Amino acid sequence: MRRLEAASGRPTSDLMEEAGAGVFSKIQALASRKTPIVVLCGKGNNGGDGLVVARLAAEAGFSVRCWATVAPGGLNDVCREKWSLLEQRKIDVLCHGELELAKLEPSSDALYVDALLGTGLAGPPKGAVLEAIQFLEGRKVVSIDVPSGVDADSGLVPSDAVTAHSTVVLGLPKPYLFVGGGHKLAGSWNVHDMGFDAETIGEEFVIPEEVRLSPRDSEAHKGTCGHVLVVAGSLKYRGAAALTALGAVHAGAGLVTVASVEPVVSVVATHVPEAVFLSLESSDGGISSKMAPQLVDIQAKFTSCIIGPGLGDSPEVRQFLESLLVTWEVPTVLDADGLNHLAEGAKRPSGLTVVTPHPGEAAKMLGVETEVVQNDRWAAARRLAKMHGCECVLKGRHTVVTNPDGHVWVNSTGNSGMATAGSGDVLAGTTAALLAGHQANSEWPTGLISAMLHGLAGDLAAEKFGKIGYTASQLAHFLPRARSILTK
Fold first, then answer.
1. In a domain? residue 204
2. Tens digits of per-residue pLDDT, 281-317?
């Protein structure tokens, strides 16, 4: 953000005015003219934004009180300029030491503006800033850019921090909204567009309005819409193949072939009659290693493949995967037990590959604890994409998608109701369907579109059923509607 501010060529004073206007617009949406406004300002530019908010609110007829952690002499030149504009309008700015915070509150229905720290956190808050953060506890607060006390880069909360009712994020979303635990303190948040040129940023928060899929050709038939091969399931995990196939069918694949052992084929045939089936010889409840050459011989029939869900982790299955992947060239989604194979040192297929780990699988692939992955999801996804030279879809809240070049896309769709068994299998099938439909030629990574489509289906399911209790198969049935929303 500092780089973008510098590149914009706009004076800091103008940027403060723009930021203050964005925050004041939020205040107008939350408060009536009778609502007292209390602005708490720090000594940095975030405090300067707050001084602008105080002036704009006073000019609009609000009752305003403003308190600062330092006297004017402790501010930089631009912040002192904003302070002087308040004084010219006879709006007092009270300083730490001049007025105890306990005497600041005008009434119980006041709206507070947190302009204490912003992105300038350096260690745990202390002194007047800590006192102000503690004072705001339990009050209705609008934070500017980031709740004070939250590390904007890591999302970690080293000590006391503001719990905001809402946060106005300036320019672009900050990492804390997606990593660490700081997002829980932001309340509802929106981005105020500061007019920055974000083309050079290495991370993007992508919303559905920005992504559009091309409509299907009016003369399309099943043979032109992609043929997905699903290599999944075992005696113990029969449902995984069914949910994967269901995801591929509802995401738009023209044909779906399920290759698995007979008990799995029987289950999938019952739940996904649209699929085609290839029964494979079994060994110890899983696919026999002897079946790998059979699939390699017919791989040219398929336009994409999903390998891994529910295969199991027996020595026989590991041998099957090793024999299969070493000569596999079809664009492939590796999930679940396919990822476990990579974690053991195997190489990915030679063709286009997308890996779709959850945090535990990512940790295993990286040789670290799951907590390490969750503390910096972007870095973990980048490492995996670079390590395997493929696209990585790191599942979880705000799924992270990366390519080997290190670019990060953050998905905006989805909800906590998707935390249910089989949801990842549906995502794997969805991703394979998009690969089969040549979505890989889009300006957007296939994994991002897949995650967005999958999350949007979850949001639609939550609208109908509520956010807890809908199943992965119910989610899959909302994929066609979700795809229609994302289609031009």
1. no
2. 999 999 999 999 999 999 999 999 999 999 999 999 9
Domain match, 50 and 154 both: yes
- Specify whether 193 is located in the same domain as 266: no
Residues 189 and 266 in one domain: no
Residue 444 or residue 426, greater confidence: 426
Q: For residues 95 and 41, what is the distance between their CA atoms, to the nearest angstrom? A: 9
Segments forming the whole domain that contains residue 49? 2-199
Nearest to 120 by CA among 172, 44, 20: 44
- Which pTM value belongs to this model? 0.89
Count of the separate structural domains present in the chain:
2
Q: Which residues contact 187 (CB under 8 A, 6 or more apart)?
A: 143, 163, 164, 165, 166, 167
